[in-house]
Design a protein that fits this description.
The complex is a heterodimer of chains A (583) and B (108). With 583 residues, chain A is an all-alpha fold. Helices cover 62% and strands 2% of the residues of chain A. Chain A contains 26 helices and 5 strands. In chain A, strands 4-3-5 form a 3-stranded mixed beta sheet. Chain A has a two-stranded antiparallel sheet with strand order 1-2. In chain A, helix 1 runs antiparallel to helix 2, helix 18 (367-375) runs parallel beside helix 21 and helix 21 packs parallel to helix 24. The longest helix of chain A has 26 residues, at 420-445. Chain B has 108 residues and is mostly helical. Chain B is built from 3 helices and 1 strand, in the order H-H-E-H. Chain B is rod-shaped, with a radius of gyration of 24 Å. The two termini of chain B are 17 Å apart. The chains are: A mainly alpha (583), B mainly alpha (108). At the A-B interface, strand 1, helix 1 and helix 2 of A face helix 1, helix 2, strand 1 and helix 3 of B. Strand 1 (2-4) of chain A pairs antiparallel with strand 1 (57-58) of chain B.
């Protein structure tokens, strides 16, 4: 494209005419300077054609394929035209010497934005916002295909404009505008911008984590206020500044943490997290980034996760924002890395185990939250220290894993969440943890060294095989009526813990044999119980058989297997009939 | 002390007058050329160059214009150089002619 300032082109044309006239006036007939006159004529020949071009350009004639502006379409050249016209007050056409729709280089856009003063910048960004809304709404059918690319292009341009500010930091000066950016009162610009456009602008700034958090919180509060003032008849917007800001925050855990602290400290609290995003997953991603155990200290995570859970369960449903149940579903992923702090390690977060478990139970009432929690099971085990050289730590890990399983099963049982989905989810989690428990227990024996990967493969293969056997034989059958499940819940619980204990033993035996350890044979391992076993206490019956079998096993395998299955069994709440029967 | 005063013939007077006229003409041409060179050098292509910057326009055409102006500046400078050289040569010719005139004793 060719961008030009019409008045300056006129002045240039006048200057050029004067210069060409001056060159013509010095021509002379003296033969001694013939070659010089040839040079003069050459200069005139170079310049002369531009007189007509400049005149036509200034008169808005002759330029080929003039593009009507703001006329629709989402292509790059079209937007460049718009940007240049809106931003610098210049006229833009296709450049006759350019190769068709030549896009501006990104650096040119940034350089252009850097030349704008505050008012020009505000005008430009406001026009971009209007254009963006136009694209988002896509009311005209022929815009249907251009909508997405148009918005993306505008967002890309906003990012380029944001880059023109250079490094931005929030100053410490009390009151007033305290955003420091070279040459521009960015604080004033951001405050005066419509939040819809301030969001993507702030998200694109090159700034430190703390500044990003403060700016994001400020923009979202304004957006929420503005939205509150428009509600009732207004449709929920197509787009929110939160979509941009949350993406930036989720990519910067420090900023995400600072943002949540800021949100908690100022009204309207965590509503700026749960009442601003179009996509709850984007908001949840901020919480996940902020509370990622890889970067977030345990105590600080408690300061964020606990209020967030309470907010989502008790406060969500802002008066002017549609209730979105997906926030509750996504709580499973939020609590997954911190399950121990919500069960066995509750004191880490300053609450008691029953208190914590009660809150976890509230989360797990929602089946989808449970599914998310199961899906994040790798994160559940993130915090389990496996120190192969420390038997005490190994033993503690075993107890923690099985203790966690016990709490989860107990919670599901107490909450009488007996639907098929929950049962299935817990079943999946149980098998996952059986693998972990068995691997840990085999390492505990010290047999075959501390080979990690090979051991995990052996255990994983065995666990998968046992699980497949259970499922193939229908021992894990079709969902049963809820009333039957409830009446039989304790027996089901007992059966399930026995299955997992049995699977743990099988996996350990398989893994030890694969390492050349000779175990008693026959008799083989006690067969895992089936769900329709008529025994009153399935676990006790199985455990008695297990003890007989263990009598024929040599150390250290005997003690390790015994410890593992006992741990798994003891972690579970037992039915009345089985109480105290398992040591 | 008296210096011998030569008597000149009519022919010598005519030659002298002719040489004087040629010298004067060469000097006049040289002066004209020096003046022309000054006018060439005064052509304000730099101002055009400055006025054609990014504040005025941007794009391939703007770049091409700057290239044209740059070529024109080079041509202008070359023209001025040639004119001044030509003027110098004319002055030198006039000087040579005057020296020849003196050497021939046609003029004291």
């Amino acid at each position: 494209v060719l961008a030009f300032d019409r008045e300056r082109i006129r002045l240039l044309n006048a200057e050029l005419r004067h210069v060409i006239g001056a060159l013509g006036s010095v021509s002379s007939g003296d033969p001694a300077a013939n070659e010089a006159w040839w040079h003069v004529q050459s200069a005139v020949n170079d310049l002369q054609p531009w007189l007509d071009r400049l005149r036509d350009l200034a008169a808005d004639r002759l330029m080929e394929e003039y593009r009507p502006l703001l006329g629709g379409g989402g292509d790059r050249a079209q937007f460049d035209v718009f940007l240049l016209q809106a931003g610098a007050g210049v006229t833009v056409t296709d450049d006759p010497l350019g190769a068709g729709s030549v896009p501006l280089a990104d650096a040119s856009v940034t350089a252009l934005a850097a030349e704008l003063d505050d008012e020009e910048l505000l005008d430009l960004l406001e026009q971009l916002r209007v254009e963006r809304v136009f694209h988002l709404q896509g009311t005209e059918s022929d815009w249907a295909t251009a909508t997405t690319s148009g918005v993306e292009e505008i967002d890309r341009m906003i990012a380029l404009i944001a880059a023109s500010f250079g490094r931005v930091t929030v100053g410490t000066a009390p009151g007033g505008s305290d955003l420091e950016s070279e040459g521009t009162d960015l604080g004033s610009v951001v405050d005066r911008l419509h939040p819809e456009i301030a969001g993507p602008l702030v998200a694109g700034l090159d700034t430190d984590s703390g500044s990003l958090a403060v700016l994001a919180a400020s923009v979202l509060r304004r957006w929420l206020d503005r939205w509150n003032g428009m509600h009732d008849d207004s449709a929920w917007p197509h787009d929110s500044p939160a979509d941009h800001l949350f993406a930036a925050l989720a990519a910067d855990p420090d900023a995400a943490r600072a943002f949540l602290h800021d949100a908690l400290a100022h009204p309207p609290g965590l509503h700026i997290v749960t009442a601003t995003a179009i996509d709850p997953a984007a908001a949840t991603a901020v919480v996940l980034a902020a509370t990622d155990p890889a970067t977030c200290p345990v105590a600080e995570a408690g300061l964020l996760v606990r209020p967030y859970i309470a907010h989502v369960l008790d406060e969500i449903g802002h008066p002017h924002v549609p209730y979105d149940g997906r926030y509750v579903d996504l709580l499973g992923a939020v609590v997954a890395p911190w399950l121990f702090q919500m069960t066995t390690r509750a004191p880490d977060w300053g609450w008691s185990q029953p208190e914590a478990a009660m809150e976890l139970a509230r989360v797990m009432r929602d089946s989808d939250a449970l599914v998310d929690l199961i899906a994040a099971r790798d994160r559940i085990l993130f915090d389990i220290p496996i120190d192969l050289d420390d038997p005490t730590a190994m033993s503690r890990a075993l107890h923690e894993i099985s203790g966690l399983m016990g709490w989860l099963d107990s919670i599901l049982h107490d909450e009488t969440i007996a639907d098929e989905l929950s049962q299935r989810a817990l079943w999946d989690l149980g098998w996952s943890l059986v693998g972990q428990l068995a691997s840990t227990a085999v390492r505990f024996t010290g047999v075959g060294g501390v080979a990690g990967r090979g051991l995990n493969l052996a255990v994983g293969s065995s666990v998968d095989s046992t699980r497949a056997q259970f499922e193939r034989h229908g021992w894990w059958g079709a969902p049963r009526p809820v009333d039957v499940v409830l009446s039989d819940a304790k027996k089901t619980l007992d059966w399930r813990r026995t299955v997992f204990a049995s699977a743990t033993a099988i996996a350990m035996v398989d893994a030890l044999r694969s390492r050349g350890v000779t175990l008693t044979d026959p008799p083989g391992l006690p067969h895992p119980p089936s769900a329709d076993d008529p025994a009153t206490c399935i676990s006790l019956e199985w455990f008695d058989e297990m003890q007989l079998w263990l009598d024929g096993v040599e150390e250290p395998a005997r003690t390790s297997i015994d410890a593992a299955v006992s741990t798994m069994l003891n972690s579970y709440q037992t039915s009345d009939a089985c109480h105290d029967l398992i040591r | 002390v008296h210096t011998a005063r030569w008597e000149t013939t009519d022919e010598e007077s005519r030659v002298n007058a002719s040489i004087d006229a040629e010298v004067a003409r060469l000097r006049w041409r040289a002066a004209q050329l020096v003046e022309a060179a000054g006018r060439i050098e005064a052509v304000a292509l730099e101002a055009v160059h400055l006025r054609a910057g990014a504040d005025t326009w941007r794009g391939p055409t703007a770049v091409a214009f700057i290239e044209s102006v740059t070529r024109a500046r080079l041509s202008r400078d070359a023209a001025a150089r040639h004119v001044r050289t030509a003027a110098s040569q004319l002055v030198w010719q006039a000087e040579r002619l005057r020296e020849e005139q003196l050497r021939a004793g046609l003029r004291s």
